[in-house]
Amino acid sequence: MRLNFKRRLKGASLLTILAVVLAGCTAQSSIGWLPTERGLTNQVDRVIDLWVVSWIVLLVVGVITWLLLIWATVVYRRRKGQTGLPTQLRYNMPIEVFYTIVPLILVLVLFGFTARDQIAIEQPLEDPDVSIEVYGKRWAWDFNYLNENVYSAGIQAQELPGGRIETESLPVLYLPVDQKVEITIESRDVIHSFWIIDFLYKKDMIPSRTNYWYFVPQKEGVYRGKCAELCGEYHSMMLFEVRVVSVDEYNMQMAALRANGNVGRLGPELNTLQNLPGTTPLSEGE
Known about the structure:
By secondary structure, the protein is α+β, with helices and mostly antiparallel strands. The protein is 35% helix and 21% strand.
């Protein structure tokens, strides 16, 4: 009976391993089921690799732990005719050292790789080709294209009957493909979070504080963006689109903004909160 149980346990383990391997062969699982694809920016592959390696390691640890729990539960269960308590052990020093040291090593290794990738992603790019200033506001976005001295003022997403969104009126951020981009991130009122979903990165927008994001978009296309910080009643409607286009198309879009009279910069003078620390000059004697 016990031999048959061991055989069934081995068979279940092999099936589990086979299922994991086969799942790893699918295109979506190869990127950890993330909402993106490889090569969209110079940073996306780095984030994907960190995520995939992390969940594979943790899945292996989880499967081993589950199998040990099931094995101990079944093998050392109370059998028919047994009474009383089994032999009690107060401690087992080798096992306790093992399950203390191994998780600590795993956490330190994962922390090290995460810190390495975060430092690389946050590294500023020298001489960016495009500088764009993004203002988050309840509940839309303003984009200032600083090199071209033009702007685009966004409005809140418009809801259609049935809960659908009017995509034609969403704010649009244009980016030239294969160009170094510097995004300056600001807030006009409360804390928001600038998130381009497909690019697998987001940055908080904090009143009276400036954040930056540097990257190179590498594939033309239309991508999704939203606020990732609960900011009020219409937080879910704070959406935008990112369109990565050729350099020629980018220049055409900048020319169109200029022709429409969108010349200049929508700066901090439009901020709702004007009395935050660092936003007002000190009078004499203060």
